[in-house]
Records
---
Amino acid sequence: MTNAADRAPLSNSYDVLIVGAGFAGLYQLYRLRQLGMTALVVEAGDDVGGTWYWNRYPGARCDVTSLEYSYSWSKELENEWEWSELMASQPEIERYAQHVATKFDLRRDIAFNTRVTSAHYDEAANCWRVTTDRGDAVQGRYAVMATGCLSAPMLPNIPGIESYQGVSVQTSLWPRDGVDLAGKRVAIIGTGSSAVQSIPEVAKVAASLTVYQRTPTYTWPANNRPLTEEDQRRVRETYDQLREQERNSIAGIALGLGGALFAPPTAKILELSEDERREALEKHGFSVTRMFADVPTNMEANGVARALYGEMVRRVVRDPETAAALTPSEHPIGCKRAVIDTNYFETFNLPHVSLVDLRKDPIAAITPSGIQTASGSREFDVIIYATGFDAMTGALNRIDIRGRGGEKLTEHWSGGPRNYLGLMVAGFPNLFTITGPGSPSVMSNMMVSIEQHVDWISDSLAYLRDHGIERMEPAIEAEDRWVDHVNNVASGTMYVAESCHSWYLGENVPGKIRQFMPYIGGVGRYRAKCDEIAANGYEGFILEKAAVPAG
Ligand code: NA7
């Protein structure tokens, strides 16, 4: 595939069009080749890696152990690739994606530097017609959206944002050549995972760092470390069992943060005496708030853990006012995605690092020279926006996707995302979404969930071909039942508590319907359900021969 800026527009026809060359798109392409199908991957970036291509901000690192956040479908790949750290950094994961693309010669079927603008189902021809920002008009019998869950960056709607004359940059669109922060006055807006990872790294080089925080974050020490030969050997000896354990687990994870085999907690914090709780705090520090079974499920237990968490913050952060501002007070532990860090709270003890608590002193405007809050203005050379994503549905909704009868996906989802198994949408035949809303996706090790979806989709395509079926889509009743099931499983949990405002619920996006999007039934249970449905001849799906073949 040519990636020259002046390449001629593409107009070919393929068995499958894939959108996105992250880990989902790459594996999907590989599987389709194995099936003897033709495929084109369309990718906005100039190389592979998806999330790990775009999020190259300082400190970007995976929060799942590297030996598990890796493909399991090639023994050769598994054996030859050596991870250097317990939790891999962005550059290493990006190198891994590049290595996979080279090893399996995947780039020849990827159109880089190309963003899909529309995907319309042509009912008469039974194909998906896709256009891009480079004038391509390609078609595929099937379309697979491998567009990622955290790939539609959000820039806040702050007055004056365009007027700023200094360097402004989003963590999720960090330039490949980096940003010169050495000796600069830097501001960072946001304190989610991206900011928590960036802040200690930025503080190492900037002349000053001012953190603008709206909501304090629960974050736990990553305890990252170099991987030893012993770690590698131990995991390699039992890799197959480990992978199997991941596939049947709740979150697609078999190892804990320390790299040892992980067992879900069983002890309850409410059953400990006050002395025992204090003893646990002395021994485990911040981790004490993550190691009890009742903390994520019982609000009283959660309250106890929150008090201990606050105490830990006060122990680390010397300035009492800063410590108080950094301590979450409103939302329960566990309602948002867990953040892990290296020296986050310690960084606020540095003399050149300061915190602005936006709850007390909100941002009024971005000015040409800096940021103005209610209390006054500060000047900056660089403003970093670590302000998150339109998660799970954003990347799909930013493409003009239309199904049967021209129905827009955004219309179908106007009351929140609706689909069957997180994989297909009623009225949008032959369109698959990898790790879509309604599937475990962001609640799990993404590699495990990506592989499960790609395998399921590939097996479905082989089934359709072998049975002479040309059109597959969910029955509306099956979709309704699945959406109800996803909501029922989440109902009553911490994730949907009134005090919880998370991107899982879409609450960070103005106007987005509050709906808990991922499926929290666990990857093992979900996999079994998907397999059972396929084994029963794709129960809940309508399979039919199309009147006119694509072409
Ligand atoms: P997150 O977790 O959505 O964090 C975004 C942060 O930006 C969060 O602290 C927001 O505060 C803050 N934010 C957003 N808009 C504003 C405005 N207008 N003013 C001030 N602060 C704002 O995104 P991340 O990129 O950090 O992490 C996303 C996921 O990537 C993460 O969960 C990991 O799975 C990897 P808020 O909390 O909304 O008050």
---
Amino acid sequence: MTSPVRLALLGCGTVGSDVVRLLHEQSADLAARIGAPLEIAGIAVRRLGRDRGDLPVDPALFTTDPLGLIKRDDVDIVVEVVGGIEPARSWLVEALRAGKSVVTANKALLAEDGAALHDAAAEGGADLYYEASVAGAIPLLRPLRESLHGDRINRVTGIVNGTTNFILSAMDATGAGFAEALEEATELGYAEADPTADVEGFDAAAKAAILASLAFHTRVTAADVHREGITEVTAADVASAKAMGCTIKLLCIAARGTDAAGRETVSVRVHPAMIPLAHPLASVGDAFNAVFVEAEAAGQLMFYGRGAGGAPTASAVLGDVVAVARNRLAGVHAPSESAYADLSVRPMGEALTRYHISLDVTDRPGVLAAVAGVFARHEVSIATVRQGPAGGGGGGADAELVIVTHVAPDAALAATVRELRGLEIVRSVTSVLRVEGGA
Ligand code: NDP
Ligand code: HSE
């Protein structure tokens, strides 16, 4: 057998320690698949003295000098599972420019400045793989990056954050409010001590940027993604969704469109939305992830599985390591970044969506006409209206109106809601949610 392919592992936390375990447990199979054994040349961590349990690795391999490790002549591939923007970016740029291929799970860095990594990979003639950065174990980026390259993707809709999916699923199942469901997620170890990146949608927005870049051959960064989290979703919203035969999910949506001048564009957004129970994403519960891809020739594809956790994420990391090691032995490289389409990213106001709006109103002649007039002024077409007893908005309201619109630009829908809030006959707007997936 050929000489070993040697890895520098940067990070040995939740994901890194499972990478070490899997490398140990699967070493014979991995060697057979690659045609050479994989060896760990060194492991960079922050704290040398940290208790790492019974990790099957020589303690002498640990170092607190990642850059020194990367630069070593006996390192062939750099595996980064530290996270964050700096110093990870500097390490990976250094490695790639030196011709050392990189496998990373670092969604934050790829979404913030993927260009720096892709450019360095091109400069150094190295591979850059990052399957684990989106949706953990689910093979998703390789299909977008390779299998679907003969097709034209029109839309990607995903549940890509496990923590928020757990919280929304719990709210749906028990009627709990957001705070109560978050507490449960924290107790069960799904939500981190600081859950901001998850519940405010930053994590999903980073993943949305990566997915959109691959799907539309365009550089999309986290800053291009419209982001709303789930902290404002109420038990009343969940009840409204149920009454419509829907459930609420935090969706990432990346879609092609055209601007006023007829030029092709993309829109990329992350926000909570109602989807019908019949939609394939509606049944994705607990902390699972799923991504629904709509392509011109392939039609609809669904990718489902565990989007987080040490072992599932390490599985994706090792899949990339095997691919990179094979490329290395064959003297070839993976296809480089494909950003030729260079589509412009449309602002959220131009994204096409639908709203579900619940209002508590005064019940007297002309109210429905006045409300309908607001929609008409903003050129928003109403799909359905339901009137019932007041929904508890207070202030002496005596009727509830539940209105679902047809598709319209988000700016027109938002302006409609703003004007409704100002009407004297509207006591309160009790729920506003986007509707996706054909409800
Ligand atoms: P952890 O916080 O569990 O581990 C981080 C590791 O990096 C630790 O081993 C830490 O060292 C080391 N580290 C931190 N700073 C430095 C530094 N300056 N120099 C050297 N080493 C350092 O993170 P995770 O394993 O959870 O996540 C790693 C990456 O994987 C992130 O990019 C994350 O977004 C991504 N990811 C994680 C998933 C998950 O479920 N956890 C899922 C998908 C992606 P020490 O051990 O000494 O503290
Ligand atoms: N915090 C993330 C989640 C981890 O909840 O999905 C995986 O990226």
---
Amino acid sequence: MYKIFETVDEVSRYTAQRLLDTILAKPEAVLGLATGGTMEPVYAQLVGMLEQSAVDLSRLTTFNLDEYIGLSASHAQSYRYYMGQHLFDRLSLPRESVHLPDGNAEDVDAACRAYSTAIQAAGGLDLQLLGIGSNGHIGFNEPHTDFSCRTHVIALSEQTRRDNGRFFSDQSEVPTHALTLGIQDILEAEEIMLVATGSKKAAIMAELYHGGVDEALPASALKQHHNVTIVMDSQAAALLPRQEEGGAA
Ligand code: PGA
């Protein structure tokens, strides 16, 4: 299903409300969380909604999608730091309920295996939130990642390193590798929401809309899932057929 709104604000409110509804319907829900510029206004909205509704978060569990390799937890661009800043430090969520891949693990392969296993042991993801890279990546699953992959180490593409360079003071500081949940882990979520905003996502969203399932476009794996909502603002949806606007596909 495609949901298209005029503004980023509307997209963010809709997405935050869906997250809140999931928590209200199932206080012990397991949420798969994403980072990136797209999610900043979503988390700002969610924090506001949670403050107003006094929802009990004590039984919630979260797993983040990905993390850079080699950045300390206190590095301002690590995803652990991002999540603290935008969400976790602003909510009364038990720290032991929050999980992120460990980009500094001594044995990264063991850490990857343990991460996918921990999600399964928690009962699986009820809702996986996703952004999308301008090259179609979800999590850090870059083009041509095997769709059967579970949590793994990935070499970041030059495109991704350039896109994310805007958050670093110098392009050379952008890590070359990351840990990411695999496409297989993502597809096992009960429900998936992919959020895309801004004109830089227009071309890839049109490719995703028109194309088939293809490992060259990781987000196309979502076409194999039974419960996906793709939420866009008018800029990201600018190259989609007009009848999609405001409607379902
Ligand atoms: P962005 O990143 O929200 O910063 O555009 C999305 C992604 O790379 O998945």
